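Progress note, sequence design subtask.
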């Protein structure tokens, strides 16, 4: 393409949306058997878009439905809610296919679709591996699947993934430059109000992590020691009985601080009972090798009162 246009490669294959929708289709059209490659290329683009849509919608829907299960898990309410989220996403995406839609797309992509995801992913890894507990997470996976996964995944979730996410996030923050859009004839520099909208979108998805922690810390420490509340905040609460492990017996959590108002806001979810009420559960990690693929759950670890827990180590 650069040879035909008598120019350099960097001017032909610029990064951004033009690379996928202008440069690649043009390159495919110059290949032998161009119609076949064109069909395969755009089929790949369609499947990639559908896959991204599933992840985006489920990420929003699952979080909200799990927060309000007593309202959204009745009848067809969840399906209606999914339809509402898809319609809202459609309206937002509709602005990106207008005459000035590329400017809107660049704003969304630059601020809310790249750097901030690494920031959120870092806290997700920390929350699961270090606060919820990697051994507890391994135990839960074993309860569901019937066998213990490779311990190397624990190294990834506790060390490699958080370091990887935070390193790239810090490097991108150091190399940050305000957004511009390089058009063929000129470069458009976004005004400050547009940059402000971009940072607002980026901060809106991340600011709730520290704000929620700070709110809960001061909410529960109104008449209690701050250090004790902070320690209890690091212990999972709101788990269901099948998620209890033998070593969970006696662990204090925020459940003992919940008031009637707190319980009403958690309507429809079963909270962890007080420490003395946690049932003693012994678990056998050996799967049922006669599992025939039915939905009876024979392959999962079973609870027993005769054998001790055998799956508390990685």
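Output:
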């Amino acid at each position: 393409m650069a040879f035909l246009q008598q120019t350099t490669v960097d001017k032909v294959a610029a990064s951004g949306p033009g690379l996928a929708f202008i440069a690649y289709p043009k390159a495919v059209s110059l290949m032998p058997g161009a119609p076949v490659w064109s069909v395969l290329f755009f089929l790949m683009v369609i499947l990639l878009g559908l896959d991204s849509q599933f992840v985006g919608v489920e990420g929003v829907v699952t979080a909200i439905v799990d927060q309000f299960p007593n309202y959204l898990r009745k009848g067809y309410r969840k399906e209606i809610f999914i339809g509402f989220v898809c319609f809202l996403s459609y309206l937002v995406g509709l602005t990106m296919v207008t005459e000035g839609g590329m400017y809107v797309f660049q704003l969304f992509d630059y601020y809310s679709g790249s750097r901030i995801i690494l920031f959120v992913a870092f806290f997700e890894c920390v929350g699961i591996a270090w606060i919820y507990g990697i051994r507890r997470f391994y135990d839960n996976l074993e309860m569901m699947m019937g066998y213990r996964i490779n311990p190397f995944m624990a190294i990834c979730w506790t060390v490699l993934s958080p370091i990887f996410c935070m390193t790239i996030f810090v490097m991108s923050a150091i190399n940050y430059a305000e957004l511009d859009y390089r058009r063929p004839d000129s470069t458009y520099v976004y005004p400050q109000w547009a940059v402000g909208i971009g940072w607002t979108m980026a901060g809106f998805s991340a600011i709730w992590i520290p704000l929620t922690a700070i709110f809960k810390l001061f909410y529960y420490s109104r008449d209690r020691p701050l250090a004790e509340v902070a320690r209890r905040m690091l212990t999972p609460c709101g788990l269901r009985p099948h998620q209890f492990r033998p070593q969970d017996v006696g662990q204090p959590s925020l459940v003992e601080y919940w008031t009637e108002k707190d319980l009403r806001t958690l309507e429809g979810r079963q909270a962890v009972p007080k420490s003395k009420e946690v049932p003693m559960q012994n678990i056998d990690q050996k799967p049922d090798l006669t599992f025939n693929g039915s939905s009876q759950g024979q392959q999962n670890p079973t609870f027993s009162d005769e054998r001790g827990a055998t799956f508390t180590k990685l």
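Strands lie at 180-182, 187-189, 282-284, 302-304. Work on this subtask will continue into the next period as scheduled.
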